[in-house]
Write a structure and sequence with these properties.
single chain, 255 residues, alpha+beta, Immunoglobulin-like, 5-stranded antiparallel sheet, 2 helices, 20 strands, 19% helix, 47% strand
């Protein structure tokens, strides 16, 4: 009888120990999220969260793994109380698929994931620079770009007639050398009506996510600074042409 009771106590103790071990392993201690579940090239990924226990002033390590298992982004962030935030922009090297986010802080860890979708890209030349337009719908065409230094605007002709109905999301990656509004947002108008586009700013570009309606014919973007009407190369060619004309004119006079 005593032997049976002893065996029963050992069994209960073993179950208790196993349950505690599983609880420790399963408890990561870190909550982590991203600002949205799906991204496109040029989007800013914001990773934020909290740790259960702060250890001195140690930073948290964040690692982002791309769909083929390579490290795409890694960084260390300091904690504010028990909170952390890290952000980066998805560059040209990003590929479509699921990205895993892993957080490590002491013996605490956490993970989440997000998806990158890369649509078709169109290029809109503007002087010596290029506007990149991305979207899953390639039926929208852009042409006849003009820049005005009078009202610091960029105007693009839009042909969305091939869209059957509704609106289509398009992402415009615009170099700040073309148009910018330091300290404020760009103003976007589609056929004269102000459009509420989601705007992200990087050190070199302005990124706009805009809904283009089926009947759109014109896209206008207003800033506070714009590219000169003639780019550096065009100015150089124009200068050489003018100097050449003056030289030949003087030569004819001398003769």
């Amino acid at each position: 009888m005593r032997t049976a009771i002893a065996l029963l106590m050992i069994l209960v103790l073993a179950i208790f120990v196993v349950n505690n071990v599983n609880a420790q392993v399963g408890s990561t201690g870190i909550i982590v999220t991203t600002n949205k579940p799906v991204y496109q090239l040029g989007d800013k990924v914001i990773i934020s969260g909290s740790v259960a226990k702060v250890v001195n002033n140690n930073p948290a390590t964040i690692m982002v793994i791309n769909p083929i298992g390579n490290v795409y982004e890694v960084g260390q962030v300091s904690l504010s109380n028990n909170l952390f935030t890290h952000d980066f922009v998805l560059g040209e090297g990003a590929t479509s698929g699921t990205y895993d986010v892993k957080i490590k802080y002491g013996d605490q860890s956490g993970k989440t994931s997000f998806v990158v979708q890369i649509g078709q890209m169109q290029l809109i030349p503007v002087g010596d620079y290029v506007i990149k337009v991305r979207g899953n719908n390639t039926m929208i065409k852009y042409s006849d770009v003009s820049v005005s230094t009078i009202d610091n605007s960029l105007t693009v002709t839009v042909n969305a007639s091939a869209i059957s109905s509704g609106s289509v999301m398009q992402e415009f990656q615009i170099p700040k050398k073309i148009i910018d509004a330091p300290g404020s947002l760009l103003v976007v108008k589609i056929d004269g009506v102000t459009s509420q586009c989601v705007q992200i700013e990087t050190p070199s570009d302005r990124i706009l996510d805009c809904m283009i309606p089926v009947d759109a014919t014109q896209l206008q973007i207003f800033g506070t600074t714009t590219i000169p009407e003639f780019g550096p190369i065009a100015v150089l060619i124009l200068t050489i042409g003018v100097l050449g004309t003056i030289f030949l004119s003087n030569k004819v006079k001398i003769n």
